[in-house]
Amino acid sequence: MPIIRAVPIGAGHYLPKRMVTNSELAQTVDTSDEWIKTRTGIESRHFAADGEYTSDLAIKAAHDALTNAGISAKDIDTIILATSTPDQTFPSTATKVQAGLGMTTGFAFDIQAVCAGFVFALATANSLIVSGQSKRVLVIGAETFSRIMDWEDRTTCVLFGDGAGAVVLEAKECKGTSEDRGILSCELCSDGNYNDLLYVDGGVSTTQTTGLLRMQGQEVFKHAISKLAAAGEAAMVKAGVISNEVDWVVPHQANLRIIKGTAKKMGVPIEKVILTVQDHGNTSAASIPLALSVALKKGQIKKNNLILTEAIGGGLAWGAVVLRW
Ligand code: UT7
Known about the structure:
The structure is a single chain. By secondary structure, this protein is α/β, with parallel strands linked by helices. It is built from ten helices and 13 strands. A hairpin with a 3-residue loop joins strand 12 and strand 13. Helix 3 crosses helix 4 (93-100). The mean pLDDT is 98. The chain binds oxa(dethia)-CoA.
């Protein structure tokens, strides 16, 4: 039976100019290139310049995605921006992006599911398109996590970076089979009992400060592989596909050991996993669209490829999406 699906028609990204290697970080933080590489796979990350905000990164990624899709901002009716590092508490950073793109119609809003934000944003965009509310959605993940690092805490400050990625989704009539292009399934999960594993120690309603990132890394690690693999498998079942059919896994890029462990548990060889963690570090909600866009530009991901994307982060919140590019 014909159905409406959210079909990707373009992707783009932006990384701030300043690239910082592990060795450069080790000049001011009690760490080493060896430790960071061995424990996380990270070799370098990018940091936004003074006065360069999350919305600035998002607007540049959005322009790149619109160009890649061959459309202009006036062709978009919805912007969803996943971020935990908004320019301000309100208005939404998405509305700043809307203005920055010169859009005066449609609607824009932020989504906050920390590192799982882009997966939650994709699922929300999918629902808006399938329900008929939206025709073309710009889904962005953009972060400036460098602004919420405690530079005295070596267990966290070496892990994160800044960046933005974006995908354009369009409503298209499809056959209603797993051969269709577009989003085939979404699996979203959260468990607030784990709030204290990964959080910022401030907030508008509590301290009236922004707060800095705090993480019990080992505890998050313990949950990550099993929860990500379970979400990935559930999404594949919903989509009616099996792991052998997956062309590319595009995971949240937090830690190479988590990425490898999750792929193995889902039965996907590491050669089919897009890896950018070495160059970007953990860019939270931006990591998946960044990886997608980089892989498209490199010619790794091609039209009709079956993609599984998965992420976990603060909340804990996690999930997976299966889509055909
Ligand atoms: O994106 C949201 C989801 N977040 C994640 O997925 C993160 C999940 N967690 C992780 O990726 C890992 O737990 C970390 C990379 C954060 C840490 O790796 P680990 O293998 O769990 O290391 P650890 O915390 O057990 O620390 C091992 C040792 C400790 O020293 P002792 O106690 O064994 O002497 C730490 O003090 O490494 C030490 N250490 C460091 N040494 C050099 C911790 N951070 C550093 C550092 N440089 N930056």
